[in-house]
Amino acid sequence: MRVSLATSAGRAGRPNEDFVGAVPGAVVLLDGAGIPGAEALCSHGVVWYTRRLGGTLLGHLSRDDGRDLGAILAAAIGETAAEHADTCDIADPASPQSTVALVRVRRGRLDHLLLADSFLVLDHSRAGPLVITDEREVSARRDCAAPLDGLAPGTPEYDRVHASCVAALRARRNRPGGYWIAKDDRRAAREAVTGSNSLSDLNAVALVSNGASRVVDPYGLTDWPGLLELLRADGPAGVIARLRQAEARDPGAQGADDATVAHCTHLRHEDWPMDGPGPG
User: Fold this and answer.
1) DSSP structure class, residue 182
2) In 3-state terms, the chain is what percent helix, strand and coil (to 5)?
3) Residue 248, SS3?
4) Which helix (H) or strand (E) holds 243?
5) Whether the predicted pLDDT of 270 surpasses 70
């Protein structure tokens, strides 16, 4: 498997809270959640959390010991939580957390796992792309924001209701009927969206953070089939460059988000070029 990676911080001078990495046969993409005020709860911060969790996931995946992706994620969440449980308030809803997207090539299949709102785009050889995401966070956010409808931003009433909406959303995190994200509770891994596809049906696969997915929505620079074409032509860095150009032209932009893309090609042994590198 060949993997091309690119990541970009949303704003200059601000750390990139995303993480992306690969080991032979597997890729990890994380989108860290930076909650205002979290510094008082966790001295390490979101960047530390995503890098620790991402590195731990890669370590487990590199062992290729046959465990399913949910078990690997559960172990990584537990190990990362244990690293700062004695010094930080990791149970607070605002403490560092992250979305998770994993893919692994093993025994002729591509296994995947998604937790929260990143995207997986499967480039099917006989059909159009299949886009997979975990829609529960978006749904919960929409429900919790409903009381803001009709209120004017910037007014005391809006600010009061907005604060209650934020509290309601946090209360749904890692709860039945709400949404699930990697944080301090390894049981969240049981709730991940998982699946498996035969490699014979796939040309490639892309992992796309929520920030990078804005090339499709809201900017409409392309659709999902077009995104795969852009990746084939310009790679992940080219996709992110187009996104940043669109954001720079948008006077109503609310601020750019961190953006990360991984593109995996040559998934099957017969796809490896004779003059290129071997497995990995």
Assistant:
1) B
2) 40, 25, 35
3) helix
4) helix 224-249
5) no
